[in-house]
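Supplementary Note 3. Input sequence used for the single-chain structure prediction.
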Amino acid sequence: MGFSYAGSLGGAGAPVIRRLQTGVTMYEGQFCLAGLVAGAGGHVQLGTVASEAFEDQQPLLGFVVAVADESRTFVKAVSGTQQYGNRSTYTTTIATIAANQGTGLTGGGEVDVCLALPMNTLIRAPIYDTVWGTALTELTVTTGNADGATVTHANDTITDIADNLSTIYCRSGANRGHYRVNGTGGANANVADIPFPYAIAAGDVFVVASCVLGLGGLDFTTGIDAIDGDNNMDAYYPVYYHEINLEESGKEYAIFSLWPSGLAALTSS
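The predicted structure, written as discrete structure tokens, is reproduced below.
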């Protein structure tokens, strides 16, 4: 499962779920947009990664929690692009629509969507590197820093993330368990404006993710089923992060709510 319901800030115990027709094949756990533009006849369509040319992007509505129509198929995995889960197959073929009707269904692709109410619905999501299942790159310190602020490493495959839109976390070393806002990103060095409590030593292990506690940004992995933790954040959906957990490789996650202006993408440039 990708995005999932984690509660409500308003104290309501049950999520708000609506059954909607899809304009594209969709999986449980994927985020969806309104179908008003380029929706192919559906009420919802698959979410899109944020971009600077976001004028035609529709508002984020919520995430798929169940497939309702008779096309439901459990997919083990599509390596590197998609999680495990049930799939609703989009169709415009009349015979297939007739076969998919079921009890109380219209016959088109239909999914149950948990509405993401801004600053109300709590959403839990895994954090991966670009695609589903790829863990964030661990950064092993090559040069110590007595000031406890600069993490110098040789993992030059990570993205240079826009300043103050990512978190750096220490997994191994004297600062283990401490988080800091990554003030200056870089392919080979990351600098926290507020130092860690202890000196950083060669061999310490850190990890960086494109999310930050409080008001931050969200962008999606390729399959629109997780947070992309290695995103440069040149454009993003504004969200409020209540919790970020980067403790264990491959099991990183965050809990967030949409910010009221997070219905469409913003740009950091």
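Residues 127-267 form one domain. The chain has a mean pLDDT of 84.
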